[in-house]
Specification:
Blueprint (H helix, E strand, L loop, with lengths): L2 E5 L4 E5 L17 E3 H36 L3
Antiparallel strand pairs: 1-2, 1-3
The protein binds zinc ion.
Length: 75
């Protein structure tokens, strides 16, 4: 069974197509920290999307506050 894998040790994502059940990470060589993307990466992807949305909202808020502060500051 081929699929996408993710190494929790070095945060490296890779694809294995040779049918290995628990392939070693090609970057650090560990097998115990390798997770299948189907279970582990899905949660991680959702969290990453939430994080991106949060950062965008935060930056927009900071930009708006700076804009208001620039307009309202007495000089
Ligand atoms: Zn690794």
């Amino acid at each position: 069974m081929s699929g996408d894998y993710y190494c929790a040790h070095c945060e490296y994502e890779f694809v294995v197509g040779d049918g290995s059940e628990q392939p070693p990470c090609p970057k650090c060589g560990q097998t115990e920290s390798v997770r299948s993307v189907d279970t582990f990466g899905l949660v991680r992807t959702i969290w990453r999307q939430w994080l991106v949305a949060f950062v965008i909202l935060f930056l927009a808020g900071v930009g708006f506050m700076l804009y208001q502060w620039t307009l309202g500051s007495p000089s």
